[in-house]
Recover the amino acids of this structure.
C-alpha cells in the first residue's frame, strides 16, 4: 500500500503525473457568469473528469491508445465569481504560460466566452492562425445588452482580432440577422446547419496552417447534448461530431490548441453530455496531439 | 420606470400586446384528462412560453424575423378539469371567435383531442380543407374503451367530418390493425414511418388548397422529445421536422391554422422538448403566417 | 370572450392589475452571477409565480384572504448578466421609485446579494430601521476572494450601513469564525441554529420600530428546501418558518418591506421549494401588509 | 423450477394468492382526471406495489409480522380515462362486492375523489360510521369550477351523506374560508395543522364505533412526500403519521376499511413517497386488520 | 367482478397465462453485480414490463399482432445478490429447463454477463449455432481486473465455447486494442461502428443456421438509450436497431433464442430506454417466434 | 503559476497533502455489490468529496476549524467488482496498515458491509472496543438468502466477534423479528426509533472506553437522506444526527475510528444527501480527532 502522495482521483483518465514531461495540458475554465439563459457550465470540467473513468483508453476510430500521448491535467483555473474582466485576464495569462512551455492547450469550459482569451493567447504565439468553430450559435455579437464580455461575443472578438476571413464556423443554426450579415460582408465562413460536408471541403484550403479548434457542445442536437445552457433543436449527431474531429485529425492542418465548452451537468440526469464530452476530448487528444 | 401595466412576462416571446392589430393568435389548450398512459401535457403551453425567452427572434432557415409577424398570445383557454365534453365545446367556440375576427389560430396542447374541435371550427370557415398530420400514432380509433372523446380519436373524427381522403398523416408508427385498414379502405393517406420524402410528394397535389397542420410532438423520436405522454422508438429527428415545416412553408398550400400538441414537461428534466416545441412554433409563425 | 388585453398568466396569484391602486408591489431580482457554489436562482421568481396557481387564496393561519390585500406583480427587474455593479445600482433605483410611491416592497431573489441595495433604499426612507434576517449563513464577509459584491457579503454591508446592533440574524449554522467574532464584537445579534424561540424573545424589544425582513430560503433544512444554491444540513422545518412569519405578523413591529431569496428551481425536481416559497410569500403579504 | 403459473411479481409484498381465504383486499384506484393542479396519481398504486419489495415484513412498532394477516392484492380497478361519473360508479360497485364477501377494503389512490364511492359503500354496510381523515386540504367544496365530482369535494360529499358531525379531519392547512366555516357551522371536526395530539383526544370518544380511515399522503410535509399532486409546506413528519396510525390501531375503535391516496410518483425522483406509502400500508394492515 | 385469482398486473403486455401452451417464454435476469461503472440494470426487467402497457399490440412494421404469438412471462429468475458464480449456474439450469420444454427463450437483463450462461445452454441444444451480437462494446476480455466473470467477458466466453468464427458483432465502438486484435486473429466478425449495412451482407451467409441474438441496449446512441450503465457517444438510432431486427426476421436464419440487456432505469427520467426496450421485445416476439 | 504537480482537485476539502504528517486518513470503500435493493453507493465517496467544496471550514457547533486537524485523503480503496470476499480482505489489510501507522481511520461507503472488515481490524488494535451504530436497520442477519457476506450482516458479524454486549445500536426501525430477539437474548443494546435521548444515557457508561462509530446515512428520515439504497420512513432529522455526533464528541469516550456509509447519489437529484454526509464528516473530523 502506498500512502505517500495526496489522492488525485478526479483527474482526466490516464493523465500524466508530470507537467514537464507532458506534451499537452488539459485544464478547466469553470466560468458561467455572463450567460443569458441557463447557468451551470462552471461544473462542466469537474463532471467531465469524473465520468472519464468510464472511457476505454483505446480509440478504435484512430487506432491509437491514450498511452501514446502524454498529457497533464492541471485542474481548474481559479476564477473570481461574477467578474468576467479579471477572469478573462487570468485565462490569457495562464495560456501564455502553457504556450511558453511548449504545451498543447486543451481546455474545458465553462461558457464560450472563455475561448476568447485562449484564442488571443494562441494568436500571439502562432502566425497565420485559423479558427475552426463548431457551434449552434454565431457568437458574433459586439455586445449583449451593453456587456461586451458575454457568452455571445467570443467569435466576434477573435474574428476582429485575427481577421474574419480566418474564422470558419460550422453547424450554426441560431443568431441575429445582423450577425449573419456581418460575417458575409467581412468574408468570414459560416456553414449554416451543416458540419461534416463543408468541413471536408474547407480543410484542404487550410493545409499547412496553424489551426485552433473550438467546440461548443451545443453544436450537437439536444438529443445528444441535453446538458448545456441553450438547447436548440436541429443539431448534428454525436457520430457526425466524431467524424468531424477525425476529419481534422486526418487532414494536413497543424492543430495548435483546442477546447470544448458549455457542458452544464445539472440539466442532464443521465450524464450523457459529460460522457460524450469526455469521449470527444479523448479523440481530440489522440487526433490532435502528434 | 414604468409600472402602469400588469406584468406580462410569461408570454410567447415577442408576442404583440394588441389583439386587434395581430394577424395570428397563439393560445394554450391545457387539457390532458382523457390520456390513457402518462398525463401532464396540461402544463405544456406554460412551459413552452417560459422557455421561449431562450429563442433567437431571427430564423436563419427562413431568413425572417419575429418582428415581421404580428401575433397575440391569448393565454390558455380555461377548461373544466375532468370534463372532456365541456372542454371540447369551449375550444370550438373559442376558435369560432378567433376565425370570425380573421385571425390565424396557432394552438398549443394539451393532449391531441384538443385538435378535434379546432379543426371542426376551421372546417366551418374554410372550404375544401385538407389536414396535414404529423404523429407517431394513427389516432383513428372510434373510441377508447368506450369513450368516444379520447386522445386516440381526433383524427378519426375530423376524417369522418371532412372526408378521409382530405387527411394526410405522416410518420405513423403505432396503431391498431383496424385503424390502418380503415384508412386504406377509405382513401385516407398514411405515410408509415416516413415524413419528409412523402410530404414533398404530396404537397404539389395540395397546391392552392386550404390546409390545417397538426403536429403531435411524438412524431419525433423519444431522443428528440422525451417529454411527452407516449414515447415510441423509431421516430424522426428534429431536423426532419424542421425541414417538413419549411417544406410546407415553401409550397403553394394556404395554411389556415396549425397546432402543436402533447408536450408534457415533467418527463423531460433537460426541458429539450419544450425548447424544441418553442422553436417549431417560431418556424410555424414565420413560415405559415404571411 | 375577451381578447382586448395581453395575456398575463404568469403573475403571482391574485395580483392586482393596477399599480396605482396597490399597497404592495411584488417583483423579481433574477441575479445569480456572484454565487460561489451552485447557480440557478435567477429562475426563482419565474418558477415561484408559475407554481403560485396551486395556492389557496385563504390563509387558515391568519384567517385572511388574498382579496383583502392589493398587490401588483411588477415582473422581474431587468438586470445585466454578469455585471453585479450595474445590477446593484439598478435595484436600488427601482426600490427608490417604489418607496417614493408609498408601496410595500416584496422582493423575490435571486442570490442574497440583491437584498443589499433593497435594504439600503429602505434605510434611506425609514428611520431607525432594524433588519430581521433568516438564513443558514452569516453573509458577513467583507469580500469573497477579493470581490466585495458577493452573495456572502450583503448582511455585512447593511450592518455597517445602519449599525450592527440593528441587525438580528436567526438560524445561522454556517460561516467563518471571523464572521461570528465580528458580530459579537460589534453588538450584532446572531441566534445560532435556533429561530422561533429567540425571535419571540427579540420581537418585544423591537416594538414600534420599522423592520425589514429578509429570508434566505436555506434557513430551512435541505429536506424542506432542496432547490437552493447551498444545501446545508441541520436547518429548521417549514412549519417553524411559517410560525416565525406569523410571530412577526402578530407583533408590534412595523414591517416596511421584505424579501425571500435563493430559490434555485433546477435542483428540485418535485418543485417543493418553489411551492413553499410561494406559500411563505402569501403569508408575508397577508401578515405584513396591513 | 416451476412454470405452471403466470408470473405475478408486482403485487404488494407477501399478499396471499387466494381471495376467499383472505381477510383483507388491497386494490388500486388509478384515477387522476379531475385534479386541478398536477396529475400523475394514476401511477401511484403500481409504484407502491413495486417498491413494497424493499419492505421488511415485520413491524417493530406493532411487533407483528405480515405473515399474521391474510390479504389479497386484487390489482387495479379498471377505470375509464376521463370519465369521473362512470369511474365513481364502478368503484362503488366494486367495494359493494368486497364488503358482501366480508373483506376489509384497503385502497390505494389515485386522487382523493376515489374515496367518496368507497366511503359511500362502507356507509351502506356499517351503521354509525365515523370517518377519520388525514389531509392538508379540507376537500369540502361543493364543486370545483362547476364540477361536482372533483378531487376537492369528497369529504363534503361523505359529510353530507353520513352527517358532518361524524367526520373528523386532522392536519388541515389549506382550504377556502367557506369550507372552514361550513365545517364549524355543521359540527364537523377539523384539527387545523395538528394531527397526533387532537387525534389522541378524539379517539376515546369514538370507542366502539365503526371507523373508516382515509389518508391523503399530502398531510405529510412536502419534505416527507414530494411525490404528490399538491405540495403544501407546513405538514407533519412521517414519524407523526406512523404514530397516528398506531394510535388508531391501539384504540377501541373498530376500523372497517381504509385508504391512502394521492401518491404521484413522477414528482419524486428518490421514490421516497411511494416507499413511505408502502410502509404506511404495512402498518395499516398490521394495525387495522385483526 | 372476478376475485378468484391473484393479481398479475406487471407482466409483459398480452403475455399468455399458461406456460404449457406458450411457444416462447419471457424472463428477467436481474443481476448487475459485476459492472465496473454504473449499476442499476437489475431493475431493467421490472420497468420494461411496467411500461409495456403503453405499447400497441400491433406492429405496422411486421403487420403482425401480439395475439398471433403465445408467450408466457415467467417473471425474474431469483439470483443471489453479489454472487456471480451461483447466478451464472442458476441461469444456465433455468434455460436448460426452458429448452427441454421446447420454448423459445427471450431474456431481459441485467448486465450482459447474464447472456453467457444462456448462450451456453442454447449451444448445448442447437448444433451449428451462430451468435448475432449488437453492442457498443466488444465484451471480449478474458477477465476484468482479475475477475473472469465480468460484464466485459461474455462474448469472449461464448466465442471460445462455440468458436470465434461463429460470432458476429455489430456496432462496436469501444474496447481494448487487444480485444479487436484477438477477434481479427481468430476469425471473429466485428463490424466497427456500423450495424444495418454489414448485417444485411452477413445474413445470407447464415441462411439455414441456428442463430441466437443478443442485444446490449447501449448499441444505441446515448440519445436513444440514456438509461444504461455505460453511455458511449456515436451509436445508432432506434430506427436502425428496429430495421436490424426486421432484417433478421425477414432473413432465412433460424432464430432459436434472444435477449436484450443493460437497461438501467434510474439514469433515464423520461423512461424512454425502458419504453424502447419494450418495443424492441415486441418486434423480437413478432419477428423471431414463428 | 504552478504546474509542478498533478492536479488533485477532488479531495475532501482542506485535506492535508502529506500522509506522514496527518493524524487521520479519510478513504472511500466504493462497494455496493451485495445490496438486495437499490445499488449505487459505490459512487458515494466521489460525490461526497466533490460537494465538500461547498462546506465552510469552520464549525460553529464545535467552535473548531478544519485547519486545526490534519487529515489526508487517501482516495478510494480499489475493490474488485462483484467479489465481496476479496473486497473484504482488501479492506481489512488496508485498515491494518493505517492503524499500524497510528492514523485515525475515517471511512466513506459504499454499502454497510464495508464496515465489517474495518471494525475487525480496529478490534485487533484496540482492547475493550465498543461500537456505536446509527442505522434504520438492525443489520443482524446471519446471512441474506444464503450469502453470509451481505449488507444485512455486518453488525451481526462484529457483535459475534467482540461480544454483543459491546454493540450499541440507535434509531433502528426495520429488521426481522429474529434479529431483534437475538439482540435481546444476547445483551446487545438496541434503541428502537430513538437516537439522541438513549445515546445520552449510554455515553456515560462507556466513559474511558475505545469506541468505533458507524453511521448508516439511512438512520436519517428519507426527507433528510433520499439518496440511499433503502429509504425507510420514520427516521430522525439531520439536526438530531448532528447533535448525536456532538454528544459523542463531548463525552469521555475515546473514539478510535468512524465511518459513514450508504450514500447513493443517483437517487438524489438535489444532492442534499452527499452535502449532508460531507457536513457530518466535517463534524466527525473536528469532534473525534483530538
Amino acid at each position: 500500500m502506498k500512502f505517500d502522495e495526496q489522492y488525485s482521483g478526479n483527474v482526466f483518465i490516464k493523465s500524466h503525473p508530470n507537467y514537464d514531461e507532458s506534451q499537452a495540458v488539459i485544464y478547466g475554465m469553470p466560468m458561467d457568469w455572463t450567460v443569458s439563459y441557463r447557468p451551470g457550465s462552471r461544473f462542466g470540467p469537474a463532471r467531465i473528469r469524473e465520468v472519464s473513468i468510464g472511457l476505454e483508453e483505446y480509440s478504435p476510430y484512430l487506432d491509437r491508445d491514450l498511452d501514446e500521448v502524454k498529457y497533464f491535467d492541471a485542474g481548474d483555473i481559479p476564477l473570481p465569481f461574477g467578474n468576467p474582466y479579471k477572469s478573462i485576464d487570468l485565462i490569457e495569462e495562464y495560456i501564455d504560460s502553457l504556450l511558453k512551455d511548449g504545451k498543447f492547450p486543451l481546455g474545458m469550459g465553462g461558457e464560450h466566452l472563455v475561448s476568447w482569451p485562449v484564442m488571443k493567447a494562441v494568436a500571439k504565439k502562432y502566425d497565420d492562425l485559423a479558427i475552426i468553430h463548431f457551434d449552434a450559435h454565431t457568437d458574433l455579437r459586439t455586445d449583449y445588452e451593453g456587456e461586451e464580455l458575454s457568452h455571445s461575443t467570443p467569435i466576434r472578438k477573435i474574428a476582429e482580432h485575427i481577421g474574419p476571413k480566418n474564422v470558419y464556423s460550422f453547424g450554426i443554426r441560431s443568431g441575429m440577422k445582423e450577425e449573419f450579415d456581418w460575417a458575409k460582408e467581412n468574408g468570414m465562413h459560416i456553414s449554416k446547419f451543416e458540419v461534416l460536408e463543408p468541413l471536408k471541403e474547407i480543410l484542404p484550403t487550410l493545409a499547412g496552417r496553424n489551426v485552433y479548434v473550438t467546440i461548443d457542445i451545443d453544436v450537437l442536437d439536444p438529443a445528444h447534448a441535453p446538458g448545456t445552457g441553450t438547447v436548440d433543436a436541429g443539431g448534428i449527431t454525436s457520430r457526425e461530431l466524431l467524424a468531424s474531429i477525425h476529419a481534422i485529425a486526418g487532414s494536413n492542418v497543424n492543430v495548435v490548441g483546442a477546447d470544448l465548452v458549455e457542458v452544464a451537468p445539472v440539466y442532464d440526469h443521465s450524464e450523457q453530455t459529460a460522457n460524450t464530452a469526455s469521449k470527444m476530448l479523448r479523440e481530440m487528444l489522440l487526433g490532435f496531439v502528434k
